[in-house]
């Protein structure tokens, strides 16, 4: 537990972005291909690595559709 009663947590955007990068690694997908899945540029992927708070629901939806995943399956995957 963090000092002064504050609980540290991982923001949802960061958690989702980490899962996307993990999925990319598991499936041996290049940054170029992942960018197509998300409907963005590879430069945007680098920006998301620095600050995942800008990952949009539209990008996540595009990724899930391209990867043929449901949100519940994606979020429950290890």
CATH superfamily: lambda repressor-like DNA-binding domains
Counting DSSP E segments of at least 2 residues, the number of strands comes to 0
Q: Which segments are poorly predicted (pLDDT under 50) over 5 or more consecutive residues?
A: none
- The figure for the number of domains is 1
- First-last Cα distance: 24 Å
* Radius of gyration, taken over Cα atoms and rounded to an integer in Å: 14 Å
The succession of helices and strands, N to C, reads HHHHH
Strand count, sense and closure of the main sheet?
none
Second CATH tier, the architecture: Orthogonal Bundle
Structural class: mainly alpha
Task: Give descriptors for this structure.
globular; mainly alpha; 434 Repressor (Amino-terminal Domain)
Please tell me about this protein's structure:
The structure is a single chain. The protein is mainly alpha-helical. It has one domain: lambda repressor-like DNA-binding domains (434 Repressor (Amino-terminal Domain), Orthogonal Bundle), CATH 1.10.260.40. Helices cover 62% and strands 0% of the residues. The protein has five helices and no strands. Helix 2 crosses helix 4 (57-66). The longest helix has 15 residues, at 12-26. The radius of gyration is 14 Å and the shape is globular. The protein starts with 11 loop residues before the first helix and ends with a helix. The model has no long low-confidence stretch (mean pLDDT 91).
Q: Quick gist of this model?
A:
62% of the residues lie in helices and 0% in strands.
């Amino acid at each position: 537990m963090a000092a002064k009663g504050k609980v540290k947590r991982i923001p949802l955007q960061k958690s989702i972005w980490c899962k996307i990068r993990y999925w990319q690694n598991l499936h041996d997908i290049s940054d170029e291909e992942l960018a197509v899945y998300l409907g963005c540029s590879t430069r945007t992927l680098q920006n998301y690595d620095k600050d995942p708070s800008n990952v949009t629901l539209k990008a996540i939806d595009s990724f899930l559709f391209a990867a043929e995943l449901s949100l519940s399956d994606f979020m429950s995957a290890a």
